[in-house]
Write a structure and sequence with these properties.
The chain has 10 helices and 11 strands. The chain has helices at 2-22, 25-32, 57-73, 90-95, 155-166, 179-187, 198-207, 235-251, 253-262, 270-278, and strands spanning 34-40, 48-50, 53-55, 79-85, 101-102, 116-132, 147-151, 172-176, 193-197, 214-216, 222-231. The strands form 3 sheets. Strands 6, 7, 8, 9, 10 and 11 form a 6-stranded mixed sheet that branches.
């Protein structure tokens, strides 16, 4: 009798584990025939929109992920549904299940990992400050008594404040909600700098109405490892996402995506090249 009870309990636990495994994103995708992906429109060249169609480096990575998930599930087709998010609601969108994956410029941090999971690293950037070309500002220490715009709720806001405090730089931090709002302050002379990820700032400077009007500092004040945002604890889905990314890194497929979106900014840095190489995990 005792052995029968133990067997019954083990059978119930095994069934519960099976149900839990099947209740994740992959099972939902299999049942609905669709995967829901989030993107931030103003994060070119990583995620933006052309005629309401998402595009960019991170968007292309997510399209490759969708193709990998479709193949793994053995589906003849898979609908990709895109939802536009903001820098402020992107984490919550994944945590709440509004989207299955977020595809833009989210930095992987331990604090965020309390709420969501992350894929393999997709890009490595650094935070810098964009300022007007004629300004006598070349490094963070030069911003004493100046005003720096930064998007609220981002890792850049946190790191900027910590860096200013650590180096005893008395700059005023102006919180904004969008990159467009920050650039408007900078263009109108209401801010002396705009702090964000270096490659995003480079893109903004290149697209500005006056070529050469803005410059970047000579130094970065943080390292920003980007990754795709995933539901926390959904190990099977994370494995499927990482399998697709690792295949891209391993086979060199990432080269075409990088060139398509990031070639104007130069070749991959040594740090990014190392990230691709190390994460090209074998099956």
């Amino acid at each position: 009798m005792k052995n029968a009870v133990v067997f019954l309990i083990a059978l119930m636990l095994a069934h519960a584990a099976t149900v839990m495994a099947q209740s994740g994103a992959l099972e939902k995708i299999r049942k609905t025939g669709a995967i829901t992906m989030g993107y931030v429109k103003g994060s070119a060249p990583f995620s933006s929109a052309d005629k309401d169609q998402p595009e960019g480096y991170s968007v292309d990575l997510c399209r490759e992920v969708a193709a990998g998930v479709r193949a793994q599930l053995g589906l003849a087709s898979l609908e990709t549904r895109w939802i536009e998010l903001t820098l402020q609601d992107r984490i919550e969108a994944v945590r709440s299940g509004r989207v299955d994956i977020e595809c833009s410029t989210t930095t992987w941090t331990l604090a965020r990992q309390k709420e969501v999971d992350f894929s393999l690293i997709t890009f490595v950037d650094g935070a810098s400050i964009l300022t007007r070309t004629e300004a006598d500002l070349g490094r963070l220490a030069d911003f004493g008594g100046k005003r720096i715009a930064v998007i609220s709720g981002t890792t850049t806001e946190k790191v900027l404040k910590e860096s200013l405090e650590r180096h005893a730089v008395g700059a005023a931090v102006l919180l904004v909600n969008t990159r467009d709002a920050a650039m408007q302050l900078l263009e109108q002379g209401k801010a002396d700098g705009f702090a964000s990820d270096r490659i995003v700032l480079m893109g903004l400077a290149r697209r500005g109405p006056t070529p050469g009007a803005f410059k970047l500092l000579d130094e970065d004040f943080s390292v920003e490892p980007y990754a795709l945002v995933l539901p926390r604890g959904d190990h099977e889905f994370r494995l499927a996402v990482n399998r697709a990314l690792a295949r891209l890194y391993r086979t060199g497929g990432i080269d075409a995506i990088y060139k398509r979106w990031l070639a104007p900014f130069g070749s991959p840095s040594l740090l990014l090249s190392a990230a691709y190489f190390i994460q090209g995990l074998s099956e």
